[in-house]
Amino acid sequence: MNDETPSATSRHRRGVLKSIGVAGVATVLPTGSATALDLGTTLDETLDTATDSLQEVLVVLETVDDIALLDTLSLPDGYFGFETLPIAYTRAPGTLLETIADLPEVVSVVPNRELEYYNDDARATTNAQEVQAGEGVDGYTGENVHSVVIDSGVDGLHPDLTDNLVANWRWIGDPLTDDGDTTLWADAGPINTDDNGHGTHCSGTVAGNGTQSEGEFSGMAPDADLTVYSAGLTLLLVKVVAAYDHMISQKRAGETDVQVVSNSYGITDDGDFDPDMPENVATWEALQENILPVFAAGNSGPETNTLNALARAPNVLGVAATHADQSVAAFSSRGRSDDFHGESNYDREKAYENLETYRTDGDVDGPLGLYRNGTGAKGADVLSTMNPAHPLQAVGDDTELFYGSLDGTSMSCPAVAGCATLVIDAYVETHGTVPDSIDVLNTLEATADLDAIDDVDDPDGADEYTAENIGTGYVDALAAVQRAEDGDLAGFGEAEIAPSGGDDEDTGESEDVSPSSPDRDR
């Protein structure tokens, strides 16, 4: 596929998410003929319409006000409508699900599926250390920025996290409870809400201050405010949507000023980008509130077309994982090749503009998804905060009591979220205003290093950068912060994208080599 080739695909949706905007992606059909695709298949095919058993679902509607239409139905357990997102959660038998899907205002009905967690110091390779130390810039540590981590939880008592932890929101109940209490999140305060250590590790990479190691193992933005949504070991879709809804509501109410959200989880499938998935609706709305979503690419590499479904949105930054030598790890998920027999696109601007049109007008010609990685950061053997009692503490080879070493794009994602935090901090400190999230995303891509792998003689991972495995290259916090200081944030089209590697990419690793344990950090 050539990114300059106009798409032959036309999309139309049953309804328009009137309060939400989206952008476009390049599409290629095997025949090259003009084809009308209907994204209005509202009922997810995995739902059983023949059963009388209750199935948990999320219902995406055109607007928040349309949620009240569910009052006209006899739902066995009622429903829970979110405050800022046009989404409701309910339980219903198969025939009633069909009735819900037939409502003209309903965009999609999907099961409350379970998502996956994608499980020395990454600061040095990203140049975050130089940013913190003031080498070539004034020196920034994230003190003007508030970042969020949605994950398994956080050890609020960890010495590296207690000073920066503003809120530790814990999932506390069933949205469909019959006791009248619809509170979904409660601030647990400085306690340990993390059952395995995954969320604590990710939180430390973003904003750990290194207290327990005298600064040696501090995170990317050690003075940033940190909020964590503790979803537990079982990450259900409703928890993710609820976290985004609460985060956006808090910001709209002026109770927080969140600018970045790190997401080390996702969905592994090989389908096309679906703008009507509840998660994709949520991340779009977050960007409209000037919150940049950063997502892990996934741990299903080295095959192509394995990219996290949530990292394909053009309004989020997907992050690949590398080894310490900056070669892309075999486990890191890849996007689609440029000769993929179906929809493929590397042009973020095209996808973003198409998606925005789709959200506002409902009709669009062209692609909506982005089928490449955004950038990359170290995700193999990353050392970060951990409670000595966390189960994942026993996985790595490190011997540090309050730190643990893990592999996965779960680890590279918060590193880039931390870099975004530094860019925003530099811009606020220098110019007095918060930059637009999409400009921060574009700047991180435009300043990424595509040559980082060139001088590596015997790489631990892939021997070249491709659009599929790393997109625009290895993240460079220093270069991005310098542009923020200069008031020269990047726009669309400035990033150089690595060429496609095709379906036969050389990973540099034998097929039986994997990150210590490929599934351990999910």
TrEMBL record:
It holds the Pfam family Peptidase_S8. Gene3D superfamilies: Peptidase S8/S53 domain. One of its GO terms (biological process) is proteolysis. PANTHER family: CEREVISIN-RELATED, PEPTIDASE S8. This is Peptidase S8/S53 subtilisin kexin sedolisin. GO terms for molecular function: serine-type endopeptidase activity. Residues 149-432 form the Peptidase S8/S53 domain. The active site is at D151, H198, S410. Residues 489-522 are annotated as: Disordered. Residues 502-512 have a biased composition (Acidic residues). Belongs to the peptidase S8 family. Keywords: Hydrolase, Protease, Serine protease.
